[in-house]
Structure formats: C-alpha cells, structure tokens
Design goal:
Layout lengths: L1 H38 L13 H8 L6 E4 L9 E7 L7 H17 L3 E8 L6 H7 L9 E5 L9 E4 L5 E4 L2 H8 L7 E5 L11 H8 L6 E6 L1 H9 L3 H6 L1 E3 L18 E6 L9 H11 L10 E6 L7 E2 L5 E4 L5 H8 L4 E3 L9 H9 L2 E5 L14 E4 L3 H12 L3 H8 L8 H15 L2 E4 L7 E4 L2
Helix pairs in contact: 3-14, 9-12
Length: 455
C-alpha cells in the first residue's frame, strides 16, 4: 500500500510540475510581451500616443545609450581606461583577452593605474588578476579598478569621471561611439580587431559601426597586419595613413606539440552557432559530406566540437557523431590542442581567428575560410588550408587536411611564424604611442607620482 501511495504521489507531483511549468512559461511570455508594448518595441498594438526621441533611440539601440562625463576626484591620477563589453566570469578569450593584455601593458609602461569599464553586461571580474599574472603582468589589485555602466537607460544616466589626461581605449564599435561623444583633450585608442559592420544586416547598427571608422579623433591599432590591410583596402584613408598593427602572441607550442594518435585520429570543429561569422551550419554540411559515401571513414576518426554550451551532439548521415565539449576552461582547451589532428575553424572575417593560429602553432592541420583580402595564411603556417565560402570547397579542404600525415604536419611546423610573446608583439605599437601621446611620469619630492601629458 505504501509503495502504491508513493507512486500516486509521484504521478500527481509530475502532473503539477507540468501544469506549473507551462503556466510559468506563459506568464513569462506575457510579461515580456507587456514590457515590449510598454517600451514601444512591439508594433502589434499601439498603446501610447507619443514618446521622447531619447526613449525611442536608446530603448532600441541600447549599445549607444550615452555615457556622460563627470569631474574626477581631487588629485585623482590619470588612468588607462579600457571600455569593454563585460567581465563576466566565463574566462578571458580572444579579443577580450587581447584588449585586457594590451591595456594592462600600456598601463605598466606608463606607470598609470588601470580602469576597466563594463558597458554592456555586469561581471564580477573573477579570475582577472590571475589572468594578468599568467600573462606576465605585474599590476596589483589596488592598481586595477572595475566599473559597471551597463545599467544606464534613457532615463537613468551612466557617468564616467574623466581626468584630462586619461588614456581611453575602445575595442568594440559601440564603445568607440561612446568615447567619441566625450570632451577629450587627446585622441583615444581604437583597438580594431574585426570588421564589425558585417555583424549586422543592413540597418542602423551596421551604419553606426561603420561610421566609427570615418572619424579622425582616434589612434587606430589593428590586430594583425591582415586587419590593417583590409581596412586600408576599404577606403578608410585615415586608418590607412595613421594605422598601427601588431600580430597576436597566441602560440601554444611552449606547452608541447600535437601528439601522434596511433588509434583513431581526432578532428575538431570550432562550434559556435551563436556567432554567425563562425559558419557553424556551413561546417556541418561540409563535415557531413566529407564523412559521406566514398569519403573519410567515421570509424577511424573521433569527432569533437567546443566553444558553446547547450548544443546537442550532432549525428552525421554516415553514423559518426560530433561530440560537444561545450565552453572549456583555458587549461582544458590547451590540453585538447595537443590531441587534435585536424581543426575546422571557419571565420567569415578579414582576420585569422585565434583558434586557427592556436591549433596551427601546435602542429594540427587547420581548415579556415577566405574572405576578401584574406586569401592565404601561409605567412603564419603552411599547416593552414584555406577554403572558399561553400560546402564543396570546405569539404575538399577538410579531406586535404585529413590526408596530411603526422610527419608532414610536423615538418611544416618548423616554418611557423606564430608569435608567443606579447611584449615583443606590442613593442613597436607602444613605442609609436609614446610619440603620439607622450606621457612623462615624475615623482615630486615627498609625494606620489604625478602624471602629465602632451598631445
């Protein structure tokens, strides 16, 4: 009898769960619909006769909601101030990691404290100091300030106190837009790591992003010579004339090289369907065909992907399964690098994405995609195979990479030109910045360091 009652109780609990779960879903949808109607971003019903232009603009285009300048505290020193979308606790990768290292290196060189301003999403910055230490930076906790202005709205202002000699850095177009509206006495640094207008369909965001390149109130610093060449080819004459560039120090060779897999070989897909330019679905089509009839034998290969959580494993028509490892920690990712024979890392952008360079630095054969001025990456590694932007070309490149022997890949590795030292890579840029925005740090007798600047 007790067992029967427990079964009844469990069944009733399950039914109640289903009812309340559905009610919760409908309530959430209703709340979202009501909010969108109130904000005027849902056009199905007109609920207001008018709204201010500020509300209309900054409710829809949240990224450009103004950041207002304010006076600094008395005797507050000038700071290297990096505007960044977020410091959420998911680790620091790619362009975010590069921006942090660049700004920190600049702060150390100038003897200035560093300030990080989160503009899109609040994060606790967990692991930030450990990240700095791992990259050879000596900034201490009390030299790094983290602010959050992501909560600003059309009727709730965000403020950033500005010292006349603060050195501001933007690494995203919307942050460049925010900085450009501030009353600065010297140019800010625009760290150009991608061509951001192509992130959007034709419309307001695309135009806003593109317009940030037409100004002349910034110092352009491009991540890779390829990026500089692309921007120059697009007719941005100011960037062409004044642009600086560096190559990323992302080689992982110091941790070891690719191991020889005696059993199944391993193929890896940089799988981020949430990032359109990574061409996730084009890659799936190409892999499905590569492992199709008369293609690569799925029984001889282990298929993996990583880069984004909550993606189910993908079963190919041939029966092979691409296992999703999700969002990995840096240590997990570094260990994975050593085990991969072929990496598929498409990027519909004018620069080589970091996984392409990281896998190639270890000796894996890497397949990535061409884009406008990016037609070859042999300047970095002969193990990088380029593909056109269609499934057939991508499939052929995957098969070509898969047919390279371990010995061939290791032989090509000897001719790699992928950097591993940020100090060397930033040296020329930082020296040029000393000329463009010179700073002199002097220590008055009996006082703290005084920072002065000139244009």
């Amino acid at each position: 009898m007790t067992y029967f009652l427990l079964r009844v109780f469990r069944k009733l609990s399950h039914i109640a769960y289903l009812i309340f779960s559905r009610a919760s879903i409908y309530a959430s949808r209703a709340e979202d619909k009501a909010l969108r109607l109130m904000l005027g971003t849902d056009y199905s019903v007109k609920v207001r006769n008018d709204m201010t232009v500020e509300e209309r603009l900054y409710t829809t285009l949240k990224t450009i909601t103004p950041l207002n300048p304010s006076l600094p505290a008395v005797q507050r020193p000038a700071k290297v101030t990096l505007l960044l979308p977020s410091l959420v606790g998911r680790g620091f990768y790619g362009g975010v990691a590069t921006a942090l290292i660049f700004a920190a290196k600049l702060a150390e060189r100038r003897g200035m404290p560093m300030r990080i301003v989160q503009t899109l999403e609040p994060g606790d910055g967990k692991g930030l100091m450990a990240f700095f230490k791992a990259n050879g930076l000596k900034l201490t906790q009390d030299q790094v300030e983290v602010l959050d202005v992501s909560g600003r709205r059309f009727n709730y202002y965000g403020y950033l106190d500005l010292h006349p000699q603060d050195l501001l850095i933007a690494s995203a177009w919307w942050d460049a837009h925010l900085i450009s509206r501030m009353p600065l006495l010297q140019k800010y640094i625009y760290l150009i790591q991608d061509y951001e207008p192509i992130f959007y369909p034709n419309g307001d965001d695309m135009i806003l992003a593109e317009n940030t390149y037409h100004r002349n109130d910034f110092i352009p610093v491009c991540n890779t010579q390829l990026m500089y060449e692309f921007m120059s080819s697009k007719g941005y004459e100011y960037i062409k004339k004044n642009g600086l560039w560096f190559e990323p120090a992302v080689s992982r060779k110091a941790t070891g090289t690719s191991q020889e897999n005696k059993g199944k070989k391993r193929i890896f897909l940089y799988g981020r369907p949430g990032v359109a330019r990574n061409l996730f679905h084009l890659s799936l089509q190409a892999l499905n065909e590569a492992f199709g009839e008369d293609g690569l034998d799925p029984k001889k290969w282990e298929l993996l992907m990583a880069g984004q959580d909550n993606i189910p494993d993908i079963k190919l028509t041939s029966g092979g399964v691409i296992e999703n490892l999700g969002k990995m920690s840096m240590d997990e990712y570094t260990e994975l690098l050593k085990t991969i024979d072929v990496a598929v890392s498409p990027m519909m952008a004018p620069h080589p994405n970091y996984p392409t360079l990281e896998f190639a630095s270890m000796g894996a054969a890497v397949v990535t995609t061409k884009y406008e001025t990016k037609q070859s990456l042999e300047r970095y590694s002969k193990n990088i195979i380029m593909s056109d932007l269609n499934p057939q070309s991508l499939k052929a490149a995957i098969v070509e990479a898969a047919n390279l022997s371990y010995e061939e890949r290791m032989s090509r590795l000897k001719d790699n030109h992928i950097a591993d030292n940020w100090d060397k890579q930033f040296e020329v840029v930082l020296a040029k910045l000393d000329e463009t925005v010179p700073l002199e740090v002097a220590k008055p007798e009996g006082g703290a360091a005084k920072v002065t600047a000139g244009n």
